[in-house]
Amino acid sequence: MEKFARWFKKINLAFAFVAMAAIALMIISTTLDTTSRYTFNYPLAGVFELNEVLMVIVVFLSLAWTQGERGHTRVVLGMRKLSIRNAIKLDMVCWIICFIFLAVMGWQSAREAIRSFEISEFRWGAVQMPIWWAKALVPFGCGLTCIQLVIDVWVNRGRLKGTFPLDLPDLRDVGE
Question: What is the reported pTM?
């Protein structure tokens, strides 16, 4: 499992770089559109629609990487009052609840993505933008994050059994 976790971290990093490239494309397209709109009174067609689908890439392809890096907002103030073992147990409960939520969300969004693909769904606007592929990224990102959550629960279980050091990110100063 440790080998898989290291490999999966590289996969998450690759998708995080794709998300970063999407952010860069959003910045560039918005800047060009704004400049063209105010300088030449000529907005660029499709920038709004493009940025809508790029936002899906930004959010769902970076979700698992953010989880792996513990980049999500966490309330550790209350956890610092717990023993390290209880804090790890609480952490595990949170990851399991997140897993269930994302698994259900991934399942439902996969059903919608399949329907969207079947009808070749696109977004009306200045430019007709196909959106079925963006809808397919939602369950993909949820699936990646579910895998990361399984890894996180496995690591926390290893911490409780003594396989890994008994600590949690942001809680290193909590005593036994």
Answer: 0.84
